[in-house]
Every structure is written in structure tokens, then in C-alpha cells.
Amino acid sequence: MSTANSFIKNSLLNFNRNILTIILGVLSTIIIARILGPEKQGIYTLVVLLPNMLVTFLNIGIGPANVYYVGKQKYSIETVVSTNIFLILVISAISIIVGILSVILFKHTFFKEVPTLYLFLILMTIPFLFANSFLQTIFQGLQDFKVFNFVSIFGSVINLVSLAIVVLVLRLGVIGAMISFFVSSIASTSILMMHLNKRHIAVQRRYVSKEFMKDSLNYGYKAHLSNILAFLNYRADILLISYFLSPAAVGIYNIAVSIAEKMWIVSQPVSTVLFPRISSAKNDEERNNLTARVARNVLWISIIVGLALFFVCDLLVHIMFGEKYSAASNIIKILLVGITLFSAERILSNDLAGRGKPELNLYTSLFTVTANIILNLIFIPKLGFYGAALATSVAYSLTFILKIWLFCYVTKTKVLSLLLINQQDVELYKKFFHSIRGLRK
Prior knowledge:
This protein is about 85% helix and about 0% strand. The chain is mostly helical.
């Protein structure tokens, strides 16, 4: 199979997985939103935000390093897996301690009206979240996207089934939603371990490598700092809404974000495949041509999908979540501009990471997260959650502009090659639609 065909096949596999995961995720969100209501849904959002923040802040970039070094084939797969298991245990223990201290210190700042017991209980999911984060990237580095995609789908299915039982039927409320989060995390870890076992990968103490840890830290800390800033860019608005407003406002805003971010259905599967492909590419010309083609097509497909969502979001929110969440549709409309542009930015970020330059993503993230937080602090007190949406949309747009300039500067690529569809793309679309028509006959 050619390189281009392999890339397209893996991207389509990821795209199909994203479609299914989004459907399952939306169904789960509907159950939580409808049964819990805005206030309790907001409390649940803040509860699960805690372990997700800890995993993001304390993973030290091991996931991106796994993709990079597995793609480079510098270390044996036994060394990578065994070292990852060791790091999961150590980092999880540290994270739980940090989590306990965070609850004690920030309970009355960012977690107002959230029961302390909920925050302590949710920390039990941390080892499984780290395991899922680290081990899944090994399959990404191996470009085994069948397993990579199956794990995501399986976790989403388990979460939905659990929610249907404990929240929809048993009416266990926020505790029920937390149980579902915990069960789906364990299920995903179990599937990852099963597939590693199928490959007959030995997990032994003798394979734990200090050299791999050192290389992972040297590479990963750059990506890690960038990911922390990206997370703050994504979720600082949630924390600030909790600080300035209420859990109910968090609930409504979170629904809007969860729908608007489905726009990344186009960019996410492609960027996932692009990262290891760029790492293993033989020369810069191959990298530049591939990334430029992917970026411009993702951008325009995202624009088309974004326009469609803009016109249907009022009806969509009403049907799925009801009148209590009607304000979410206007939040979605404000977010769409930034989220659409950010789709192409994700492609460029994964390209730079795949070239071994994750620090460049760090510089842009540092600028945009600062802008995002400042704008949120200005707009939320004046405009409420609409101000948060405006701040986020502006920050994402700035990221897009800055990343295009940086990418072109580093690679000497022309700006228009990243923005405008060309004749080669048109021919590719013609072949694609022709093949679809052929399948229907």
C-alpha cells in the first residue's frame, strides 16, 4: 500500500471512530444533562475536571514521547511498555497526593457547591486515566489504529451503558455519573492490557530503562508544557465561570462546548495519524507537501461543517437538551469561529511535534492561553458565559494566525498553500466521489 493510501486509510479509520465516539458521547451527554439538570450537571463537570487536570498537568509528556520514539524505533517495544507501566504507578501516586492537597486548598475557590467527598472519590480513577493516556499512544506510535480506535469506542460504549443503568434507570444522580466514569476508565485500561498481551510483549522490571525515561523527559517536557497550556486554553473558561458564576452556568456552558468541539471531528483523526507519519517521513519536502494538503482541506471542510452547525444549533440544542439549556445555542455560535480555525491549527501543531520541535507549540500556547485568561477575566464579569465563549473564540483565532506564521517561517512553506484548495485537491475529490458512485452501482 502506498504512503498516501495508507495515510488516507488510517485517517478514515480514525474518522469513522470519531463519528461513532461522538454519537456515543452525545447520547451520554444527553442522559447526564436531561436527568441531572444544569446545576448537578455543572457539579459533575467540575468533579471530573479535577482528575483530568491532574493527568494533564502531571503526565510529563510521556504520551507524545511514546509516539515519537516508537515511530523512530529507537527502543524495543518491551522497553517502552515496561517503562510506561513503571511511570504510571509512580506518577499516579504523586498525582493522588497533589489532588488531595488541591481539594483542601482550592475547594472554596473553584469547586464551590461541589461536595468534598465527590472530589476525593474521583481521585481513584487517576491510575486508569494515566494508563489509558500512556498505553494508547504506544499503539498510535505503532500506527495500529485498529486497536487505538477500538479502545476509544469501547470506553465510550461502556460509559453509555453504565449511564443508562445507574443514572437513567437507578437515578443515582452525580454519584451514578461518577460510577460510569470510573467503570469506563477501568474498561479501557483492561482492553489496552489485553491487546499488549496479544502481542506477547513482556512487562518485566529488567526492561525498565532509565535512558528511555531520560529521552522521554527531554522530548516530552516540551510537548507537556504545551499540552498544559492547551488544556488551560480549553478549560480555563470552565474554572473561571465556576469562580464568577455558579455550577448551573458551568452546566450550560459545558453543554455548548461539548457540542461545538464536535467540530474537531474533521481535524482530530487526521492529526492523530499525521503525528507518527511526520516522525517517520524521510525528508522535509514530503513532510511539507503532506501537511499543507491536509491543513487546507481540513480548514475548508471544517468551515462547511461549522456553517451547517451554526444554522441548526438552535433546533439541535432544543431537541437534545430541552428548554433549560436554550442559552447554549448562542454560546455555540460564538465559539464556532475560533473552533473552526483551530481545526487547521491542530494539524500544524502535530506536524511540528512530529518534526521533533514541540517547543514551538509551547511558545504559541503560552501566548494564547495568556490572552484567553485575560479576556475571560475581562468578559465573564460583564457578559457572563457569553463572555467566556467570546474570549475562547478570540484566543483560538489568535492561535491559528500565530501558528500559520510560525509554521511558514520554519518550513519556508507559502501561506496560500495552507489556505487555498488547488487543482490537485479538486482531482482528489473527484476520484473520491467517483469511487463512492462506483461502490453504489
